[in-house]
Design brief:
Two copies of one chain form a homodimer. Chain A is mostly helical. Chain A has helices at about 5-20, 30-35, 40-45, 50-75, 80-85, 95-105, 110-130, 135-155, 170-175. The first copy, chain A, binds a DNA duplex through helix 2 and helix 3.
Chain lengths: ~180, ~180
DNA sequence: GTCTATACGAAGATAGAC
DNA sequence: GTCTATCTTCGTATAGAC
């Protein structure tokens, strides 16, 4: 429930873009404004300071995560399948916002860190609900983390991870299925 | 085989410290020099530019990784046990250098990205050698990634990961053991 | 080897015109 | 709602003294 004006959204998109592709250091007001096609002054009309720009990004993520959790719960093939298949950042709006906030968290932005920790808590809870075993749920959450992490560090091509393309994920899901307790 | 002088090493330590604790943006020449207890001019005697400072860090990592791979191969409890137990950054000199370089990679430093990809390749190869199954090896590598990633984002306390302390890792290793093919 | 002084462009932010 | 001009501080780098 944050953005109304199109320019505001374009500015957040540009901010994400720079954080993802070139890191914190490149995500300057000048850079963001240019990437969004406005001047620095134009940006500062919508976001009065860099802190306000960051707040705008965090608010956007907050909205998107609520949707994501709902999607996981209602996924036809089950929560684990959905989570693993969507872990690797694939460039969806949600993925982009999430990766961008990750960069801020790694730059030690405390609020970003807290927000990411909160979301992870929710994900782990949903998985545990689905598999009924705490250790297995934790393992699956870690695999999800691993997929996400690798997708944000390695270049798509010549990656050392077999599973960054949706097609290859079946093998991984098959291995995971072997440790999920059967239920009656 | 890079550093000889103690000041040089202290500067690299300080550079790592800032990258890890406060991100790229805080890792300025001024900041690094101050953290190492020298002046900006002092730093620039040892590393003539910021690029040289980064090169120094990459060279340090290169040395440390060679040792790590050797440790994995010769670990008494096996490669998988060793890898999983040492994945979460625990603040060893190797961990610190590795996390610091990860920050550079996420800031889109290409050489850092390539170096990390190369190391991961080695690790995956060692795991596959140990477990004899590609999918299982990939899964274990992802869990290792997940442990590492979480250890660099979440605050030690109130973490959502059960396994960031060595004590809790047995449960995770037990689950992993269930999918490793038995050999004769 | 380490320091101070200085140059210069980049980054965040304000004021006011259109 | 967007722009230009301007201010201040920060970040990188050079020169030269100690």
């Amino acid at each position: 429930m944050a953005s109304i004006t199109p320019t505001r959204d374009r500015l957040l998109d540009a901010f994400e873009e720079l954080l993802i592709e070139h890191g914190e250091r490149a995500a300057t007001l000048e850079g963001v404004a240019a990437a969004a096609g406005v001047s620095k002054g134009g940006l500062l009309y919508h976001f009065g300071s860099k802190a306000a720009l960051i707040d705008g990004l965090l608010a956007r993520l907050s909205d998107l995560v609520a949707e994501d959790i709902a999607d996981i719960r209602s996924a036809p093939a089950g929560a684990v399948d959905f989570l693993i298949r969507t872990s690797a950042s694939a460039g969806t709006p949600f993925d982009r916002t999430f990766v961008a906030v990750t960069r801020l968290a790694q730059g030690s932005h405390q609020q970003a860190k807290d927000m990411l920790a909160g979301f992870r808590r929710d994900w782990v809870a949903v998985i545990e609900e689905a598999v009924g075993d705490r250790d297995v749920a934790q393992m699956i959450a870690l695999i999800s983390d691993g997929l996400f992490y690798e997708s944000t560090v390695s270049d798509a091509k010549d990656s050392t991870v077999d599973y960054l393309s949706p097609a290859g994920l079946d093998g991984l899901l098959a291995v995971i299925a072997r440790v999920i307790p059967k239920r009656d």
